[in-house]
Amino acid sequence: MRHSPRCRSRWIPGLxxxxxxxxxxxxxxxxxxxxxxxPTDGFISVHVPLRRKGELSGLLQLRFPLAxxxxxIFSTQQLILLYVVLYGxxxxxxxLYLLGRNVIRPIARLRExxxxxxxxxxxxxLDVDGPREIADLSDSFNRMIDSLRQSREETQRSIASLQQAxxxxxxxxxxxxxxxxxxxxxxxxxxxxxxxxGYLELLKVEQLGAHQQDLVERCLVExxxxxxxxxxxxxxxxxxxxxxxxxxxxxxxxxxxxxxSNQGMFDSRQLENHLPATLPAVTMVRHRLHQVLVNxxxxxxDATDAEGRIRLFGGVEQGRPFLAVEDGGSGISPEVLPHLxxxxxxxxxxxxxxxxxxxxxxxxxEEAGGNMEVHxxxxxGSEFRLWFRAMENS
Length: 394
Description:
- This protein is an alpha+beta fold.
- About 50% of the residues lie in helices and about 20% in strands.
- The chain has seven helices and eleven strands.
- The protein has helices at about 30-35, 70-120, 130-205, 210-235, 250-260, 285-305, 355-365, and strands at about 5-10, 15-25, 45-50, 55-65, 245, 270-275, 280-285, 310-315, 320-325, 370-375, 380-385.
- The strands form three sheets. It has a five-stranded mixed β-sheet with strand order 6-8-9-11-10. A four-stranded antiparallel β-sheet has the order 1-2-4-3, covered by helices on one side.
- A hairpin with a 4-residue loop joins strand 1 (about 5-10) and strand 2 (about 15-25).
- Helix 3 (about 130-205) packs antiparallel against helix 4 (about 210-235), helix 5 (about 250-260) packs across helix 6 (about 285-305) and helix 6 (about 285-305) runs antiparallel to helix 7 (about 355-365).
- The radius of gyration is 55 Å and the shape is rod-shaped.
- It starts with 5 loop residues before the first strand and ends in a 7-residue tail after the last strand.
C-alpha cells in the first residue's frame, strides 16, 4: 500500500532559508535520488535525512537563497572597513597622547632645563616619573645637576680660599715693607726726639713767664704725641716678645671699659655691657688684649654721635670664645672694608688717627693664634669681633 507524502514548507526571512519538511517512507535508493537532484536556480539546497529506529522515515530539505549575497558581502566589507578605520584612528590618537605625555613633554622639559643650566642656574631638577627609560634619564639628569652643584660649590670655596690666601700674602708683604720703613723711621726719630724732650724739660724748670711756660707745655704735649707714634711704629715693626698668659678675657674687657668710663670717654654715649660672667680661658699676653679692647672701644666712640649706642658682649661659638664691640654709627662702606687693616689707612679726619691702630690689633690677635673680624652695614653700625684660641686647643 503506498502512502502519500506529507510535505510542510516554511520561509524564514531572517535566515533567507526555505525549510521543507517531507515525510514519507523512504528507501535508500529514493534518498540517493533526492540527494543527487540538480539544485534549484538561485538557491543552495541541503538535505538532512530523518531516521527512526534505524530506517529512513523522512527528509529535511534546507534551501538558502543566493539573491543579494554579493551586495550583503560588500556591505559587510564596508562596515568592517569603517570599524577598522575608526579603531585605527582611536589607537593613533591614544598613541599620540601617550607619546606626548610620556616622551615629548619630558624631552621638552629636559631641553628647557638644559638651557637653564647652561645659563648658570643649578637649582633645578626633573620629576622622576613616566616610562622606565624616561624616569632613568630624569634620575641621571638630576644626579648630574647635583654633581655640578657640588663641583661649583667646591670651586667657589677653593677660589675664596685662594683669594683669602692671596690677600693675606699681599697684606703680609705690605706689612713687612711698612715694618722695615717704620723701624728705620722710629730709630731715626727716636734720638733727636729724646734730645728735644730733654731740652723742653730743662726749660720747664726754669723761671719763665706764663706765656713761655705755656709754650713749653704745648711743645711737650706735641712731642708726646710724636713719641707715641714712634712707639706704635716700633710695636708694629717688631713687637716685643712676651710670655703668654692663661686667663679669662672677661675681666680684661671690664677693666678696659672701666678705664675709659672713668676718663669720661662715654659720657654722652649709651653704653651697654652684655659681657657674660665668665668665658673659657685663653692664651695670649694679657696687657695686649687690654690694648686691643681700648683701641676698639675708642674707635666705637669716634664712630658714634652724641647719644650713640656702644655695646660690649661676648660668648662661645663652635667651641671658640669671643669678645665683640658693636656701635650704632654710620657703618663702613664696602669699598673701605678690604683696606680696614692696612697700615696707615684711615678714614678719620687729619689729626684724628694714623691708621695703625687696627693693623696693630689684628697683628696682636694673629700672634695669639686668634683673629679679628668686622661686620658692618652702611647706616646700621659696625661690629668688631675678637676670636681667641681657647687654652684646650693650644
